[in-house]
Amino acid sequence: MPTTISIVVAFVGLFFSILCKADGGVPTKGFEHLALTPPRGWNSYNSFSWIVSEKEFLDNAKFVSEHLLKFGYEYVVVDFLWYRKLEPDASVWSSGHDVIDQWGRPVPDPGRWPSSRDGRGFARVAEQVHAMGLKFGIHVMRGISTAAVQANTPILGAKGSPDTKSGRPWLAADIAVPGTECKWMTCCFMGIDASSEGGRAFVKSLYDQYASWGVDFIKHDCVFGVPDLRISEIELVSKSIAEAGRPMVYSLSPGVQATPEIGSKVSNMANMYRVTADDWDTWSDLETHFDVARDFAAAGMIGAPSERGRSWPDLDMLPLGWLTDPGAPVGPHRWCNLSPAEQHTQVSLWAMAKSPLMYGGDLRAIDNATLSLITNPWILDINAHSVDNLELQSTPSHTSSKSSRFGLSDCKDEIPRRWSLRSVRHSQDANQVCWTSTASSERRWRKGEELPLKCLHWTPFASGSQVANTSSRMGFIASPPELHGCLAPVVLGISNTEVQQPSMQNVECSSEEPNQLWHLTAEGRLRNEHTGLCAIVVEEGERIWVARHSSDQVYYMAFFNLGSTATHMAVGIDTVIRRFVPSTKIIDVSSGSNPHRRVMLADNTDLICKAFDVWNQHDLGVVGNSVGALVEGHGVAVYILTCTTSL
């Protein structure tokens, strides 16, 4: 009998080992319970950029502890450059201001973080955070700092020598790889040779130190997305965190041009990974998240099993409330630019896509409306406990699934277009021109080639010996990456009428081609000097997301109106239920002018469904064939559908 039991136990162990590997790998011991639901918390970036101080951070942590912890917000994260001195010449893009220790590792700026002056780094801050019942996180950059390379600091714990003849110890310059600078901060960080003894030892020393400080969350930047993908460093960091012995949620950033294919390479090593560039409080930023969220959901990436518990595609922080500006050397000074409807849309998409919820505004100034927005219990339940989340690919009575595209107007309308120049932190394109308004003209135009909405690279125009000014209002617009070249409109159609058809050519940028030159006017219009027409963004389309609870008879529906005017949106109850329970039967029992369909389970039991309006907190009672609403422009309606076999 003992022998039989041993064989059975061994077989079961082998079975579960194979099963775990098929599902994404055996969880690392001590890490298997990490991020089982999308992490929630507060991050300092949207409100303080890089200049947050110890007091400001702890004040926000206190608010999280007292008001948000009960809603699942448990992480408080210091975002980037906590080691940079806040002095006159310091900025996001300047070198020579970073504080490092004798081993080339970053340590907190003692001017902003006075508790670090005893040489214990963030340990005292972490102790205070933990005493509040919270978990402490920090942002770190890829590779090694140029400050360490220039000082050529020794590498702690590195065995052997990079030079067998001299036998000298490993130094920072031995592990740094020139030409691998972070694309959005080339002055200050570069990649390392993760395969070398010195590179492995340096990363191990970093995460051993972070563990000794009491860090619970790592946001690792400039390692993910197309421009800066560093799989070897992600693998090394994931391993080093495990070896450090302290469970830490591992987050990757920035996610520029991320795809599910790229995400699949890291989901087994990280708990969350950004799938977009930085998100700020503009509709143009928010709108770009819909396609990305759809693609990662369709690929089955939401909550995928990993060696570290679960992994979650991350749509970025929530830039709500009291904010600063990207890269600004000042703290919060303005309110969120998103309208109330757009704010509800953002939180709803983050919930339906099960993105981590990291609030970005200064909590010391949060208003009741915003607090209610991020603590809505039904929205939070969807974010944590819904399953099988996806975007339906078609919506009843509507044919367009495109959210936006470029078009041309005659520049005669009275509504300002609000194009603007922008410097982007997480992009190799330092200067971009972005659409930041969604007001639409009453004039009509024929649709030309459909180009997806996004900020585009802006090349300032210089005439003759004139030096190009990065803030120049004259310049060239690069095509989206998949098209290459520059955008140059050619107008076809009926002359001297309001009906015009733009055709965007993609050619090599040249000052010799007058139809490529654009003028950004003081009113925010983007005028093509050759055609006399203005670039606009044509918006239309609706998105319907659905999900279900772990109980098969509770369903969630979110109607997103990406257009600027109100529209009626609806979905059939049978369409939703059969998406998750294919065996559901639909029986047409219409009579005369009263259309009706019965929804039945496989055993012929009728389903009776009640609907609840989440944002209006209104019980709609028993519903018939469909659920729908008049959804305002850029707005959302979210419903919970609870179906039972009896009232």
From TrEMBL:
Q: What is its EC number?
A: 3.2.1.22
**Which reactions are catalysed by this chain?**
Hydrolysis of terminal, non-reducing alpha-D-galactose residues in alpha-D-galactosides, including galactose oligosaccharides, galactomannans and galactolipids
Which biological processes are named by the entry's GO terms? Answer: carbohydrate metabolic process
Residue ranges of the TM segments: none
> What SUPFAM superfamilies has UniProt attached to this entry?
(Trans)glycosidases (SSF51445)
Entry's family note: Belongs to the glycosyl hydrolase 27 family.
List the protein's name: Alpha-galactosidase
